[in-house]
Fold these 2 entries.
Entry 1:
Amino acid sequence: PRTRHYDLVITEGQGWPDGVVRDMLFINGKFPGPLIEANRGDRLIVNVTNLLRENSTTMHWHGQYQNGTNWFDGTTGVTQCGIPAGQSFIYNFTVDNQFGTYWYHSHYSTQYLDGIVGPLIIHAPEEAAVRQLYDQDRIVLVQDWYHDFSTVNLGRYLVPDNENSEPVPDNGLINGWNYFNCSLYDPDSGYTCYDNSTYTVFTLDPNTRTRFRFINTGAFAEFELSFDNHTLSVIEADGTLVNPHPVHRLPIHVGQRYSAILTTNQSTATNYWLRAAMVTFCFTIDNAVLDPTTRAVVSYSGGNNTVFPLAEGDNASVDWADAYGVKCHDLDPSELVPSERMVPPAATRFWRVDFSFGIGAYQMDYAKVNGTTWKPLEGTTTLIEAVDGLAMAAGSGGSGSGSGFATSGVVSGFGENQFVVGVSNASVEVVDVLIYSLDEGAHPFHLHGHDFWILLTGSGPFDWANYYQNIMPSNPDVVGNALRRDTLTIAPYAWALIRFVADNPGLWVLHCHIAWHMEAGLLMQFVSRADVLGKMQIPEDVRGLCRPPPS
Ligand code: C2O
């Protein structure tokens, strides 16, 4: 294993990824941020410098387990206080027991939407077999894009009586580029638009195989990805290798990743569109400037393919005839079979989590998770409260009742807006969470610090008999080789049963990755390994972020 150093410098300025000029944020002067790459087992030391004028920032390593380093998970108010403007903070963790396609982003309010995102790729010898299936790889960050700063949209969203109408994107981007038709904005719109916007181009040699690593780094929209004239073979979902699965269209919701192989076996006489079509069944496009299909170009090198840009209807690059198939949910998880079979251990604990939005006249547009609306703690973190509370309880010889989670259950003591549950008293527990949506939208739920198995999904009543007979005790014929990942879409008014092994001491959030929803409070927390958490030493520089600067 090696130690790899990276520097990420956060700045603000003006940018025009699609031609429309706006205030945005940059990492090392770029958007998207640089690739961070490591081998499994390596140590990553990432120095994040905040050169914003006012705002704090954090960095979250989406999908990284952070086993033993919960304080470097980057979650504002949960695992750390923000890095104040003008300061640096060093993240220092090992990438153990995992490899594949990940990403990093600010986890401070809706800040990542303004540009603080980048890819994180972990390699491992276990990929040797799958490595035979492709010749090269390409990273594809796909995301929706707004022409206003995120806090402006957040202000519009979190107003009374808004009936959970999320801000509708103005465009989408692929690796930070897309075309936008400036004439859609009239001169008095207030937007400056440069007419030279263009597409990302992937130049590939004919008859080669490319592993496209897709990452949805957006705010809100799910996309269906497709390449004209080419079939994709899916081989990875959120760091889990799966048996190759052919698709024309691949749905990807916010926070999710897929790897899929494309073979350049078509005519070299033209270019081909990569289409990322927003799945608009789940929201109304009341935005006249939005073209819901975001595009990039695949160009065969050495081909006679000078036709650019491609006109829609160019008869050499043709959208697949099959209809857009997905309505607000993931590919059926049973279609993605992990190449390494891993039967989940039997569950030792069960939680049901219901969520909904407060709607109706004069109600703020806030989310409720089992009755609570998350707001990040200020000036402290749930991690600090938990560690110090446990340490104090142990020191006073008490039973720990003061800490609120010596007995497993809903944890108190973190303020009224925190739904925090304890998952273990004294050992590693295996936790089932039944997530129940009482909302009409689709919600990509992400669990920090763990992968989970997707054991059941459905709508309507939950089959308790089946649960107690087969699912909870892990009958291998039933739970078998279920898909493992870290972000799944909960369909409208539907539910999903996930299972994870709570072997990772700390405070871990489960939240909807739609940035608007997280800021509306659609987030809850798990306390894991309370038996060892109180003995863990939070580094002084992490605690220091929560102290006001000396005056
Ligand atoms: Cu991409 Cu809470 O994370």
Entry 2:
Amino acid sequence: KYEGKKIKVALVGLGRYAEYMASQMKDCQYCEVAGLVSGSTEKLESWGKEYNVPTKNRYNYENFDKIKDNPDIDLVYIILPNAMHKDYAIRAAKAKKHVLVEKPMAVNAADCLEMIKVCKENNVQLAMGYRLHFEPYNMEMMRLGQKEVFGKVRVVEASLGYFAGQKGEWRLSKKLAGGGPLMNLGVYCVQAGRYITGEEPISVTAQFGPVLRKELFTEVEESITWQLEFPSGAVCTSTSTLAAGIDRLYASAENGRFELSPAISYGPFKGRTHEKEMDFPQINQQAAQMDAISKIILENKPMPDHISGLEGWKDMKVLDAIYKAAETGQKVRI
Ligand code: NDP
């Protein structure tokens, strides 16, 4: 159908997730790793060999804008620390390349709007790396909630945490991460609250948790808990933390319940309704995400809202409000 055409992807920032993504993309039908952008000449060399990326498709952060003149790159995938997403998305769009951004989209909602605007002005697609939109267990949670299979959803609990944190890592830097676990993990919980109810939250209350490792968490929170209210009266309660492991989604509707645990990390996913265990294939979600986005670009179709920059902006508006609520101790309207 696409005459063997594949979307040529340049990965920006060759860190841990880029490494995982690149290995998973070996299963893709509609795209391939074709470009590399890194601050490390060693990585450019070793990744270049592994992924068969010629020298002319390898860039550093200084000469990255030259990608404009490279017809062998269609899509730029930004997998950098959060606070760098905005600049690189804008630079990629100005180079007339389609843009894919890892979560969280940026570090505040205003930056997301700017990214959306520049992509529009340059007539390029803007997609979010929201892999769970292609993952069967999470898609079932969306279906059960949004289609009101067990009636209207009343209560959601969505939490994600890991015991993690090392001195010097960018996730503990306010400047590079924009915040703590709310930015990196909480964004999934906000997403889940929104995709299970199919609604946009109208207000939030939030509380920072205690800081247990004072030497590490000098700039960003170690834990945060919040409560979102939705127009229907549904409530979503969440914790994101680097002080404990937790990975679950739970929804209670008028006539039944459904849940996943593990829910958000790379699986294997497990889930059940109040009636039975869920039984879906464990898929390569990274490859599924990349193929789906690439097909949309190949077909020249608009990016569907739920994986577009618009979706990233909607989540970021909620994250901004959660921080405001935790800082002020007040309920914040969204
Ligand atoms: P890493 O720290 O492993 O990698 C980040 C890379 O960014 C570095 O290796 C480096 O690449 C580059 N970089 C450029 N400037 C800096 C800087 N000042 N400090 C640190 N790194 C820098 O992070 P992750 O791969 O875990 O995360 C990257 C992004 O991906 C984040 O936005 C994160 O939220 C997202 N992510 C998404 C996941 C998902 O499941 N969707 C899972 C994990 C992360 P180089 O040496 O090549 O220049």
